[in-house]
Write a structure and sequence with these properties.
128 residues; mainly beta; 10 strands; globular
Length: 128
């Protein structure tokens, strides 16, 4: 339990470099990672990214990830609903607790400000 808390807290520090902003309709969130981050099918290098959500009213979602100014699409990811008890005032990115030594943290969930629902990224078996 304590290890999981330490991992979660350290992962939250990854995205603490810049304030996170989110748009209500597509839950657009701008985030800066200070180290590589794995998402299904891709590794995002340190930098600033824009996450957007499609199919908000559905049980399954498409998450698109763009560069900082939204001019380059890096990837589109299939995600499923995820819920937490309380909505928070800031966006939250949660990462998997376990990873192979020397590999990037794998992004597991994304929650936008003021929302108790978010998305969980779907990885193929053994790839997170």
């Amino acid at each position: 339990m304590a290890r999981g808390l330490v991992v979660t807290l350290s992962c939250l520090l990854l995205v603490a470099a810049l304030p996170l902003a989110a748009d209500d309709w597509d839950r657009q969130t701008t985030v800066t990672f200070d180290q590589p981050v794995k998402v299904p099918g891709r590794v995002l290098l340190p930098g600033t990214y824009v996450f957007k959500l499609s199919n908000v009213s559905s049980d399954r979602h498409l998450v698109t990830i763009y560069n900082e100014d939204g001019t380059h699409l890096y990837t589109t990811i299939q995600a499923i609903n995820s819920y937490r008890v309380d909505a928070m005032s800031n966006a939250v990115f949660k990462f998997t607790e376990e990873r192979a030594k020397g590999t990037p943290q794998a992004l597991r969930m994304w929650f936008t400000p003021g929302e108790a629902s978010g998305v969980e990224f779907v990885y193929s078996k053994g790839s997170s």
